[in-house]
Amino acid sequence: MRLPSYGYTYRLSGHPFVEAVAWDNDTRSWTNNVIDEQAPEIVGADAGYLIQGAV
Questions:
Q1: Whole-angstrom Cα Rg for the chain
Q2: For residue 34, which of 6, 15, 19, 24 sits 20 to 30 Å off, Cα-Cα?
């Protein structure tokens, strides 16, 4: 039995991309630059529901 899905998060191939570790003298800390590309998409809005006013 297949179940419908409300949405997906698509991510580009090869991401996240992490660059080499580098020392930052200003913060006296090691840093890593990270590049991530993703896109959340609602593809089956009929498969989800919203609960409002829950106590």
A1: 20
A2: 6
What amino acid occupies position 55? V
Residue 53 falls inside a structural domain: no
Residue 1 pLDDT grade (very low, low, confident, very high; cuts 50, 70, 90): low
CA distances from 28 to 15, 20, 23 (A): 28, 17, 7
The number of distinct structural domains making up the chain is 1
Measuring CA to CA, which residue among 16, 11, 2 is closest to residue 41?
A: 11
Q: Is residue 52 part of a domain?
A: no
Q: pTM higher than 0.70 for the full model?
A: no
Full domain range(s) for residue 33: 7-47
Residue with tokens 């409300």: 6
